[in-house]
Amino acid sequence: MDSKVRFTILSLVFVLSTVFFWMMLNNYLLPSKAQLDTNMKVFISEKDIPCNAKGLCLAHIFGSTNTGVGVAGVQGSFRYSDNIDVLGLIQDEFCKNASFKLDTELGFRIDPASRSAEFALGALRKDDLLESGAKCITGVILQPKSGTTTPAQGFIQLADSPLWKAAGAQPLVVNADSSQITINITDDAPIPSLTPPIDKDKGCSTYSKGDCNCDGAIDLEDWENIRSSMNGEGATCDVNGDGASNNIDVSIWLINNEFIQ
User: Fold this and answer.
1) pTM here?
2) Domain residue limits, the chain
3) DSSP reduced 3-state for 96
4) Are 33 and 173 in contact (CB under 8 A)?
5) DSSP H or E segment with residue 78
6) Which CATH number fits domain 207-256: 3.30.70, 1.10.3470, 1.10.1330, 2.40.128?
7) pLDDT digits 0-9 by tens, 218-231
8) 251 vs 2, 70, 186, 206, 216, CA distance in Å?
9) Which of 3, 43, 185, 257 could cross-link to 177 by cystine, CB 3.0-4.6 Å?
10) Neighbour tally for 195: CB within 10 Å
11) Whose CA is closest to 155, among 30, 29, 44?
12) Helices 247-256, 220-230: inter-axial angle, 10-degree rounding
């Protein structure tokens, strides 16, 4: 065999051997970021959501980790259609049955212009008390826009994975299912019990929008009533009628008040 041909063959063998070696090294000896971190999947548990045009409905954001991989905090965002409003987050009975127990709201912001919302929830428990497995992160309170003609369809959709973060006893990488979930708006869909009631004692149809004193305006006087009620300082204003004055009532006021639109 010609020496030049032999040299060429040996060179090719060397190059191919080197490439193969580095492939094996990367795959089996040098773990990737995905191998170093533990994945957490997030998704909306409902396949479609029935929603009464005159009431509220709920979407539930779930997460899933390996057993024993506790979750201490989740930050994420979602989009929704222009015929739907988002009123706030809630740990309802459905969530409480199997929850990560992220009971501290670290932040919640709605952007009506982009039809999106972002939130962060956390827990301060010890490592061995953090929840793992497939469980609820939070419920989302949805409301069809007033005047929506039925039947109609809207949607809610988790943001893509790069916009999600999670923290826990081990590093976590979030994989978000960003499929659109259909919201079927009808006149006869069941209404969750947390639907804001009209305050019959006051005869005030705007109470459920944050008009705590029923003076026809949703303003700073109502903000003060909510603040006072949340802190047990005399006033009573439970806007959504769930038995407590909390951040849900604040969220409803923020959406409907006359100053911050």
Assistant:
1) 0.65
2) 3-30, 38-186, 207-256
3) helix
4) yes
5) strand 71-80
6) 1.10.1330
7) 888 888 888 888 88
8) 82, 29, 24, 15, 19
9) 43
10) 17
11) 44
12) 180
